[in-house]
Amino acid sequence: MDLATQPVTDKNRDAYYWRLLATALSFTLFGLGGLCLRLVVLPLLSCLPGDAQAHRQRTRYIVSRIFWFFVRFMARTGVLTYDIQGAEKLGRPGQMIIANHPSLIDVVFLIGLVPHANCVVKKSLWENPFTRGPLRRTGYISNDGSMDMLDAAADALNSGQTLIIFPEGTRTQPGQPPAFHRGAAAIALRGARIVTPVIIKVSPTTLTKAEPWYRIPKRRVHFSFRVGADIDPQAFAALGPAPQASRKLNDYFHHYFIKELAEDERSEA
């Protein structure tokens, strides 16, 4: 997998109107890819031999490859550039990957980087008729805030799956620090062998919660992904009863990301 930032040699490709057109093409391609996945690819995959787990793994792999193709298409057409540090540490059994959520497509990057990972996804995607079918086939987990969700996520980790989760539950408000919900910490204490943070920075901001796809920034966007040091959740499990340990681990996650994001800001100044 090519993780290096792809240079765009044609200076015109950094022009506003070219990037606007390329962004529209990217989202059109993504939509058509999802439709093709639902109507053609998944029915064909279901005809292959194997049990439910084998079908789930095949579907996750195909979704991951489609997502990574989408990332590479955006890079090749000059919509964005990216750099990724430490990707080789992702994808271990029982690993919970936590990340801040500054943009709509950072989840596309992470699923593209970890081919067989499970993922906690927005409940609204499970209610969308275009995404509901593929999500069911992948076995991704709906972020509905219920105990069933926590159980399913912990069970996935205990069975040796890698789980991607965004503790904020929604995209970060521009200019605001990330605010983590306690669910990710509770899941980590119940099932994760190790927790690996991924610090994501987007400059300039794009595809935040308040921005439609066509409101692109004046210059090309750069995504930076940095995989941090592993966190042992069991070190927090010994700090008290489950609710107290969960609160302390969530506070640690929160302060860790604020500190790391602030250091990135200082290093660029």
UniProtKB/TrEMBL annotation:
Coiled-coil blocks: none
GO MF annotation: an example: 1-acylglycerol-3-phosphate O-acyltransferase activity
Pfam families registered for this protein in UniProt: Acyltransferase
Membrane-crossing segments per the record: 20-45
Domain Phospholipid/glycerol acyltransferase: 95-203
Functional pathway: Lipid metabolism
GO biological process: phosphatidic acid biosynthetic process
Keywords: Acyltransferase, Membrane, Transferase, Transmembrane, Transmembrane helix
Domain of life: Bacteria
Protein's name in the database: 1-acyl-sn-glycerol-3-phosphate acyltransferase
Organism: Pseudomonas frederiksbergensis
